[in-house]
Every structure is written in structure tokens, then in C-alpha cells.
Amino acid sequence: MASKTLQGTVLSKKMDKTITVVVPRRKKHPKYGKYINLSTKYLVHDEKAQTSEGDQVLIQECRPISKRKNWKLVEVMKKGAGK
């Protein structure tokens, strides 16, 4: 069974070894047919603290590391204009 992978943007890196990644998605409204932009925030384990805010990253689902953190950083796709 393959683990899920998602691509998103680093929103925050204020925690130790943890980053917040926002993953956007588009969903079609069931009745009206209009596309809606939605996003989900994930807490991601970043062992080496190699990211900065605004980076495009690839994350992968893993075993639970803490109560809300069950994703890990795979790679930094593109460096952003972070703080």
C-alpha cells in the first residue's frame, strides 16, 4: 500500500521540528456546479528544519508522531520568498 503524498506551501515554521503546510484543492459544488477553492492545513514533521515560509514542499503520510502530526517532509520542491 502506497502512502499518500501531497504538495503544498509552508505557512508557518514557528514550532521546533514542525511546520504548517497549507494544501489547496478545488471542489465542484454538488448542486450549482461552481468550483470552490478550499484548503487544508497539515502539521508536518521537519527533522532538519530545512524549510522556510513560502516554500513549495512535498509531504507524505506516516505513522502518528504526535496528536495532530502524522505527515513528514519528503522534499522541498521550490524555495519561496520567505521571511
Count of separate structural domains: 1
Radius of gyration: 14 Å
Number of strands: 5
> Order of SSEs, N→C?
EEEEE
Poorly predicted sequence stretches spanning 5 or more consecutive residues: none
Task: Please explain how this structure is put together.
The chain is built from no helices and five strands. The chain is mainly β and 83 residues long.
Topology of helices and strands:
Layout: E1 5-15, E2 18-28, E3 35-45, E4 56-61, E5 69-78
Parallel strand pairs: 3-5
Antiparallel strand pairs: 1-2, 1-4, 2-3, 4-5
Provide a brief overview of the structure.
With 83 residues, the protein is an all-beta fold.
Question: What are the main properties of this structure?
Answer:
mainly beta
